[in-house]
Amino acid sequence: MVLFERNADQTMVRRLGVMEPYALPALLVLTTVVGLVGDALTHDLAAQQLLGLLTFAVLAVAAWSMPRYRRNQIWLVVVVSVAIEVFGSVIWGAYRYRFHNVPMYVPPGHGIVYLFSLRMAVTPWFERHGRGMVALALAVATAWMAAGLFLWPRVNGRLDVFGALCWPLLVAFTLRTRRGPLFAAAFFATSGLELLGTRVGDWAWSVSTPVVHIATGNPPSVIAGLYCLLDASVLMITRGLLLAARALPGPPRCPAR
Question: For burial by CB atoms within 10 Å, which of 45, 57, 111, 172 has the most?
């Protein structure tokens, strides 16, 4: 199943020519940057909701180029992310958005990160340097985690234990699965958007998580590990649904006359 999905994605990307495989990931990065900066410049919910509608539109158009089973995965990421965001921000309060809501652009933003990771993982660059990108992601994550534990407390007074707890997830998904390059791409994408989103003030992480009181950076260093967990969960769910559908009995055959 994994090999079939990967071969299908590679075939699709090779048909696009030399530069076009990178055009969609570049568009998704541009959309993310414009959306996050645009949210920081808005002054009311109406403008933020407009950003959300535009983000949904970009995701819908971009996802249309993917095979049907990939589109199902992308929209499942969007649906599952709603529950995760409501719990993490509104209920638990580990982080808060500017208007203490879940902005409309956030769920499709999760879908954009997932689509970006899917497309980047099968580009010619990642095909040639996949292992190198995995090693680079782990090196950056490890250095960032160490800084959150030993350097940032002296620089800005913020200890980051939460990010360190996410580090084993990233290691497990990049080294222990066949989709290492996909999760490496997800690490870079989510790290970039977390750094930008917190920098411009779209959201902020609590100094310590409520209830369990885990010291947290703003953002946590390897929060991408949780994004990888979301991506892996969606892959497992869609695969399970596909297997269940294949196991269902087919329509009854008419008796031969």
Answer: 111
The pLDDT > 90 percentage for the chain reads 74
Q: Which residues does 3 contact at the CB level (< 8 Å), separation at least 6?
A: none
**Cβ(99)–Cβ(40) below 8 Å:** no
| 131 and 183 Cβ atoms separated by less than 8 Å | no
In whole angstroms, how far apart are CA 48 and each of 88, 99, 135? 20, 10, 37
Query: Are 224 and 187 spatial neighbours (Cβ–Cβ below 8 Å)?
Result: yes
User: Where does the pLDDT of residue 177 fall: very low under 50, low under 70, confident under 90, or very high at 90 and above?
Assistant: confident
CA distance 163 to 113: 19
The DSSP-derived string for 57-101 is HHHHHHHTTS-HHHHHHHHHHHHHHHHHHIIIIIIS-SEEETTSS
Question: 178: which residues sit within 8 A by CB, 6+ positions away?
Answer: 2, 6
pLDDT digits (tens, 9 = 90+) for 6-58: 555 655 554 444 347 899 999 999 999 999 999 999 989 999 999 999 999 99
Greatest Cα pair distance in the chain: 85
Which residues make Cβ contacts (< 8 Å) with residue 177, sequence separation at least 6?
Answer: 183, 232
Residue pair 109/203 in contact (Cβ under 8 Å)? The answer is: no
Rounded CA gap, 6 and 121, in Å? 9
pLDDT of residue 252: 59
pTM beyond 0.85, yes or no: yes
How many CA within 13 A on the CB side of residue 176? 8
d(CA 228, CA 205): 19
pLDDT of residue 80 exceeding 60, the answer is yes
CA dihedral 50, 87, 138, 130 (to 10 degrees): -50
